[in-house]
Design a protein that fits this description.
mainly alpha; two-stranded antiparallel sheet; 7 helices; 4 strands; 47% helix; 11% strand
Length: 182
C-alpha cells in the first residue's frame, strides 16, 4: 500500500466563478486487481494494454486506487509532480523477491489482458480472492509461478523417454557390432 500526502490548495474554478479550497489530504492507494476492475468497468477498455493513457484516464485510475474513504474529488487536482512520480514508481515496482530468467521474460503473450482474464487465472490456479487486493505485480508474479510450476520439465515426458530408448538401442547395436560388453 502506498501512502502519499496531497498538499492543500486554493484555485479558481472557471465554471462556477468561485475559489475552491482543499485541505491537505493523506491518501492510501493500492495498485490492485480491484482497482483495475473499477477502471475497466468505467472506461470499457483494458488497462494493461500498451496504448497510452490520457492524463484524465490516469487521474481516474489514481481515484480507483484510493482506499481512503470520503475524499474530496478536488484533492486529485492538487496532486503534485512528486506525488504523481511516486505513484508511477509504485505502480511499476515488482513488490516481490521472485524474478524470472531473460528467456521467460521474453515470452510475452500478445493476448489482451483484462481484469476478467486475471480473475480466470486466479480461479484456474486456485488463488484465493483475497489476493485481488495485493499489489498487481505481485499477483501477476504469483500467477506466472503457478504456470511455471504446472508446466512439465523440458526433458520429461514421451520425447525424453523416446530419446533415451533410441540411445540405448544405438549403444546395443554398437556393442554387438564391435563384440564388446560396454
Amino acid at each position: 500500500m502506498l501512502s502519499i500526502t496531497v498538499p492543500g490548495a486554493e484555485r479558481w474554478d472557471e465554471a462556477t466563478g468561485e475559489f475552491i479550497t482543499t485541505k491537505e489530504c493523506r491518501l492510501q492507494l493500492e495498485h490492485s486487481l480491484v482497482s483495475i476492475s473499477k477502471w475497466e468497468a468505467k472506461w470499457e477498455k483494458p488497462f494493461l494494454s500498451k496504448d497510452q493513457k490520457t492524463s484524465e484516464e490516469m487521474l481516474d485510475y489514481i481515484q480507483c486506487m484510493t482506499l481512503t474513504q470520503c475524499v474530496d474529488p478536488n484533492v486529485y487536482s492538487n496532486l503534485s509532480y512528486e506525488n504523481i512520480e511516486t505513484i508511477y514508481k509504485y505502480i511499476d515496482a515488482p513488490m516481490t523477491a521472485t524474478w524470472f530468467s531473460k528467456e521467460e521474460n521474453r515470452k510475452k503473450s500478445r493476448k489482451v489482458v483484462t481484469s476478467e482474464l486475471i480473475y480466470y487465472w486466479m480461479i484456474k490456479f486456485g488463488i484465493p480472492y483475497e489476493c485481488q487486493k495485493w499489489h498487481l505485480n505481485r499477483l501477476i508474479t504469483l500467477i506466472r509461478v503457478c504456470e511455471a510450476e504446472e508446466r512439465p520439465p523440458k526433458n520429461s515426458g514421451k520425447s525424453g523417454k523416446r530419446s533415451l530408448s533410441s540411445r540405448a538401442a544405438l549403444n546395443a547395436a554398437r556393442k554387438q557390432q564391435l563384440g564388446t560388453r560396454g
